[in-house]
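User: I'm preparing a small set of examples for a lab meeting where we compare how different chains pack in three dimensions. I only have the primary sequence for this one, and I'd like the structure in token form so I can line it up with the others. Please keep the answer compact; I'll paste it straight into my notes.
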Amino acid sequence: MDFDQTFQELLTKLISFIPNLIVALITFIGSLMLAKPASRWVKQKIGKELDDPETLRLIERITRWCVIIPGTLIALDQVEFDITGFLTGLGIVGLTIGFALQDIARNFVAGVLLLIRQPFNIRDTVSVAGYEGTVLDITTRDTVIKTLDGKIVIIANTNVFSDPIINYSQNPYRRRDIKIGLGYEQDIDHAIAVFLKTIQEVAGVLDDPAPSIYAEELGDSALILSVYFWIDQRTHNIFETHSQAIIAINNAAEREGIQLPYPTQMVKLQQD
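Assistant: Understood. Below is the structure token output for the 272-residue chain.
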């Protein structure tokens, strides 16, 4: 008799619980289905006034979670889940897990700060954490860069955020320099005039800022000249233009009978 009564009570509770469970499932699934279109709608609205893909991506993700989290909490409340106790316990557990996952947490925070601060954008050419290349993607965990030699490098956001960042794309003008060794027996003024005219005629070298040549040092067997010129990287490839400049200087020296005992050298990229 007691068993029958207990069974009846359990069956009654189960029957009364099913509607709440159905409502909870519908609420949870509904929040998942609503999250994506809601985030898209917010992105479209804000995107009309904000032309920045990284910030829009961050806003889209925040919007999605702002829909999913309340929906989940409402669904749990429908099945009489102790949300307060759960959140309290989750806080304690989260604190414990946080110590174990400090790097992940730091990368997430650094990623959010990078998306807000925006030291660079996707497709920018940058130098960061010892790598130079084009930014392919920025997430809340890491930054993906394609180096100049074609390697795909995934860099933790903590390293990106804490290291100095050089953004070559912010200023479209890039300065290059070439070192030339000129024999002491050569006519220095004539050589400088020839080289300067030659550089000015190379396709891709800007007139403003104008190219310049300076004597840098007295070498053991030659006077070292430094040739400086600027390239607009939006219209010309800096490496091709640099190569053409070296070839043009060498051809001009041969044509004018100017001896170059010190080999023309390519030096590291510089930015003013």
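A couple of notes for your slides: The chain has three domains: 2-100, 118-167, 173-266. The first strand starts at residue 125 and ends at 128.

User: Perfect, thanks.
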